[in-house]
Amino acid sequence: LQKMKKKARRNKRQLNERVRNFEVVMDDASGEWLPATPEQTAAMKAEANVGKPKTKPMKRKNAAHSSSSAGKAAKDPLKIIIAGAPASGKGTQCEMIKERYGVVHLSTGDMLRAAVVAQTDVGKKAKEFMDSGKLVPDEVIIGVVKDRLSEGDCKKNGWLLDGFPRTPAQADALADAGVCADCFLFLNVPDSMLVERVVGRRTDPVTGKIYHMTFSPPDDEEILARLEQRSDDTEEKVKVRLEQFHANVEAVKGSYTAISIEIDGSKKPDDVANIIEQKVKEMVGAKVAV
Is 109 within 8 Å of 127 (Cβ atoms)? Predict the structure, then answer.
C-alpha cells in the first residue's frame, strides 16, 4: 500500500511538471491530459511568450497606424465558441479566426495551466484535483474560464473559446456565470475521415514535424524510417474518443441553437475558413465590419 501511495504521489508530481512544461494537452472529448506533439508544445510556449524578452509596447503617434488586429477590436467585441472532433481541423481554423478578427484564442488546457502557474484562487483549487489524479470539476473550470474572460485583452479584443463547453452542465454553468457568445461554430467532419486523418499521423522525433502517411508523407527515406506514431493515434482509441465527443457535443449544441453555425469541415482549410467568415458575418453583422 505504501509503495502504491508513493507511486501515485510521484505520478502527480510528474503530471504537474508536464503541465508546467507544456508537454501535455487537454483532450476535448474526454477532458483528459494527453501527450503534446512537439509542434503543440512550441505553439503553447509561443502563446505564453515563454523565452521571449518582455518589451514595452511602442507608443503610436497616430491611431491610424495601429495594427489590423487592434483595429478590429470594438466596443462590443466578437465572442465565439468553436467545437470540433479530434482531427477536425479546429486548431487550424482557430489560428485563422484569431488572425482575421484579432480575438484572444483560449483553450481549457492553456487556461488551467496559466491559472495553476499564476497560483490564482481557482488555479490552486485546480491544482489540488490535478495533484490527486482527478479530473478538474466543472465549477473549478468555470471559475478559471470566467476569470480569464474578465481580463483586459478579452474585454477589448473579444475571445475564441476553443473546445469548451464540452458538456450541457458546463454550458449551463457558463450561462449562469454571465458568459454569452455571439456564435457557436461546429466543424462537422465524417467519422471515417477523422479516423483516417488521425491514424495516418506520424511525427519526426528529430524535428518535431508532423507528417501524414496518405496526405503529406516525407520524400526522404531516412525521415520516413524514423517516423513515430503517438500511442493514442490508433483506430481503436480514436473511435472511443469520437464516441465520447459525439455524445457530449450533440447535447451542448442544444444549448446554443439560436447562435449555432454548422460548417462542413471536410473541405480544404482555406475553403472552410472562407465559409466561417461568411457565416459569422451573416450572424453578427456590424461586429466584424472593417
Answer: no
Q: CA angle 262-39-95, nearest 5°? A: 35
Strand partners, 202: 211
Q: Which residues are marked as active site?
A: 90, 166, 201, 230, 241
CA gap 277, 191 in Å, rounded: 25
DSSP characters over 151-202: SHHHHHH-EEEES---SHHHHHHHHHTT---SEEEEEE--HHHHHHHHHTEE
The 10s digit of each residue's pLDDT in 137-150 is 888 988 889 999 99
For residue 161, list its beta bridge partners. Answer: 81, 106
Instruction: Write down the mean pLDDT value for the chain.
Output: 82
* Cell numbers describing residue 35: 501527450
- Where does the pLDDT of residue 15 fall: very low under 50, low under 70, confident under 90, or very high at 90 and above? low
Count of positions (residues) in the chain: 290
Q: Report the share of the chain in percent with pLDDT over 90.
A: 47
The pLDDT of residue 54 is above 60 = no
| Rounded-to-10 torsion of CA 131, 178, 69, 50 | -10
Contact between 41 and 33 under an 8 Å Cβ cutoff? The reply is no
What does DSSP say about strands 79-84 and 159-162: parallel, antiparallel, or unpaired?
parallel
